[in-house]
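Notes from the 1:1 (GR / supervisor)

We went over the backlog. Supervisor wanted to see one worked example end to end before approving the batch request, so GR pasted a single chain during the call. The sequence is below; no edits were made to it. Supervisor asked that the structure be written out right there so they could see what the output format looks like.
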Amino acid sequence: MSDPVPRWRRRKKARPQEILEAALDCFSAKGFAATRMDDIAERAGVTKGTIYLYFQNKEAVFKALVRESIGTQIGQVLEQTQAFQGPAANLLRMVISTVGQILSSTDRVVLPKIIVAEAGNFPELARFYREEIIDKGLGVMSAVIARGIERGEFRKVDPQHAARLCVAPVLLAAVWRTTFAQFDAAPYDYSGFLQTHLDVLLRGLAPDGDAPP
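Structure output shown during the call:
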């Protein structure tokens, strides 16, 4: 048997993730602009100098957080779509349900809200999010729509427009959860909302106007 990894070494390997979790808490509470590296360090229980061992600046922390969470999920969805062999309608259900589950359950859902709020003062972050997350996500959706059209399973529509229609309600769910949910008299049924969205969407895409089974 190999010797166990020293405790300090295990801690060192876990530290970047601990810093990202602390940064998420700070960004969620204060926003990107108001959060200082000192705030992240205090939340993570490390010195500010320790953070600079892993991340060049606050922007690098935010970008790593986006890549580690939403970016990784999009990569996994892309792999699933490339390997999928069934009907396009089933693939579209899988993709939207997966993305919807991520946005309705994970604490990373606050990241799109932060980008929208801070885009005016930090356009480079908005550009990064557009290229790293939005463009890739729309690319996945467009490819699914195009596949359905080519196979005669969907009626002919502009895949770029249809991709945005696919994503819009999902983003609404994210905005609602991070902004308005606190005022709901009862927890909102995000799963039911997404299923209704899929039903309406697939009826609109079906060649005869009827949703595939």
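Supervisor's comment: Residues 1-55 form a domain with the Arc Repressor Mutant, subunit A fold (CATH 1.10.10.60).
Batch request approved.
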